[in-house]
Design a protein that fits this description.
Blueprint lengths: L7 E6 H6 L1 H12 L8 H15 L5 E6 L5 E9 L16 H4 L6 E9 L8 H10 L6 E6 L4 H9 L3 E7 L7 E8 L2
Parallel strand pairs: 4-5
Antiparallel strand pairs: 1-2, 2-3, 3-4, 5-7, 6-7
Helix pairs in contact: 2-3
């Protein structure tokens, strides 16, 4: 395990995150290559075709953790869900209309949160998460997590998230993911 030492966590908007895209890609590729995700180079490429579009959203927020030498060790990013979000449509069982109502402010969608292997277990994910959500003004946070990622699921539960359903992201051939919600009120 790498020692935490001095880990700097920076919060950034979309334009700054777009400049740091290589750091986000490195973290993503390494973290999600592992089971249960087993993402390939093609999967990473697809995710980072979406990243510039996501980063152009005026409400996009990201956090990036780097060690003393500047090496990227962790990241998180997302943005508030708009009225036309398809997030709720991916659930395998419908939720009440009041739960799925979005207005661009109500729900922050946490798209990704990952820490590279050598730096896990040191509270970096919690710092990334906390700094990302600090001051967002949303009522709640929504995310998807692979149920086979026991450490991530346990962390989210410890932070107050609760499972509200399951979703099959990117089509019928994809693995089911747990949909989790954190009430910020």
């Amino acid at each position: 395990m790498a020692q935490q030492g001095m880990i700097a966590v920076d919060r950034m908007g979309g334009s700054t995150a777009a400049v740091a895209v290589d750091a986000f890609r490195l973290i993503y590729a390494e973290a999600f290559a592992e089971p249960p995700y087993n993402e390939t180079e093609d999967d990473v490429a697809a995710a980072f075709r979406r990243f510039p579009v996501q980063a152009r959203n005026r409400t996009f927020r990201a956090t990036l953790a780097r060690c003393e030498g500047g090496e990227p060790v962790g990241m998180a990013y997302g943005f508030p869900l708009g009225p036309d979000t398809g997030w709720w449509d991916e659930l395998t069982e419908p939720v009440p209309e009041d739960m799925r109502r979005e207005d661009g402010l109500r729900t922050f969608g946490l798209m990704e949160l990952a820490v590279r292997g050598p730096w896990r277990g040191q509270g970096i994910a919690r710092r990334l998460h906390g700094m990302l959500l600090d001051g967002i003004g949303a009522e709640r946070v929504l995310l998807n997590v692979h149920p086979g990622s026991q450490a991530a699921s346990a962390a989210y539960r410890a932070w107050g998230y609760r499972k509200i359903g399951e979703a099959r992201l990117w089509g019928e051939s994809a693995d089911l993911h747990d949909v989790m919600l954190l009430d910020l009120r």
